[in-house]
Known about the structure:
By secondary structure, the protein is α+β, with helices and mostly antiparallel strands.
Amino acid sequence: MFRPALVLLLLPLAAQADGLSAGAYAMDVTPKKFPVSVNGGFSDVQAAAAHDPLHARCLVLDDGQTKLAIAVVDSCMIPRELVADAKARAKKLTGIPADRILISATHTHYAPTVAGVFQSEPDADYVRYLAEKVAAGIAAAHDRRAPARIGFGRARDETNVFIRRWKREHAFIPADPFGNTTDRVQMNPGHQAKGLVESAAVPDPEICLVSVQTRAGKPLALLANYSLHYVGGNPALSADYFGAFADRVKQLVAAGETDFVGIMSNGTSGDVNNINFAGAAIKAGPGERIKVVADSVAKKAAEACAAIEYRSDVTLAAATTELALGVRKPTTADLDRARKILNEQKGKPSLTGSAAVYARESTLLAKYPDTVPVTIQALRIGDIGIAAIPCEVFAEIGLQIKKTSPLKNTFTIELANGYNGYLPTPAQHALGGYETWRARSSYLEVGASDKILPAVAEVLGKVK
Ligand SMILES: [Zn+2]
């Protein structure tokens, strides 16, 4: 009589004793239809071909009780509607619920527009195609699950991260697009430009590594995280250094392993690029810097991988919370000024000058609701914590999360599960500069980070 009950009770234990299984897959998401709009600048770019392929790099982990999926997509930013569609499709294919799936954009500036920003508008066909492909990539990773072991590593690369916002003598800082001269910092001021004082913060040079192998030690996937906006220099379409890193790290840690998937997720790089404005400009041909940066970061990652200790008895967890954050909307006076500027360019096929581009952004932001939902997620893989924020997060916020996390090894993936623009701290807002200028690329309330940080602490606490 007791026997059947006993068997039932033992089933979950047996599954757990089996330990971790994992699968990875790099799904090609390069569009089939050209030309295609490319966002990332004030003006739209139309790409006629792909310089190198775009991917959704997917990793599925399963501890026998809980499954997690991570998809890092070669895109500039992915709006929450597209994320929701991709997650719903992935759930249908794998059974993994939306809150256990993390979908992020690498922030390559050479991918098809899927979020309308400045003068680029998405192509509805590609938006649907990308959702389907991301879901199919997660399903393919899910199908490939095999007994696995996992470990965490960290390295540093100080040579490729610099704060791009510089404090500068006031006389040298141009007026902002709203006609104000209140900015105290300037983004990308130019090499050794006159009046430079100091960069406005410190970057995070850490490379975090989640390495996944078969039980026998064959490399399956490496999820890396580095806080660098992007590099640039390739013609669109391109996966920028994110794709180049994936290729290079594969050569270094998994040569000959055709199924291995290298993944570079974006950390907290809202104010970080790879240009040292304190020094002279580095001369480089098209695409050269991408290769140099990818090689440097991949070599440091590979060195750290050699020291990683693996285990298969890890448990997984996920938690999500939703905030309603205020939108910095234009005032009536702002809108009057904006309409006047736009009237001067009436009939032109595209707007010229940042004043007009931001004037249009003001009219579009006026239609936004007063608050927007912002999804904050945490994943736990053993003693590794991953915080996911749908913004271009300033480096100091990521450093704060690492310092205060209740988990031993924590990093943040930005531009995850939606797109809510830049996330400066209130103190950085006070300094002004591009990342704070009100537009669809920067619209959350000034105090947003003071609400997001406790929300991150809450979800990290939950998964712990
Ligand atoms: Zn950006």
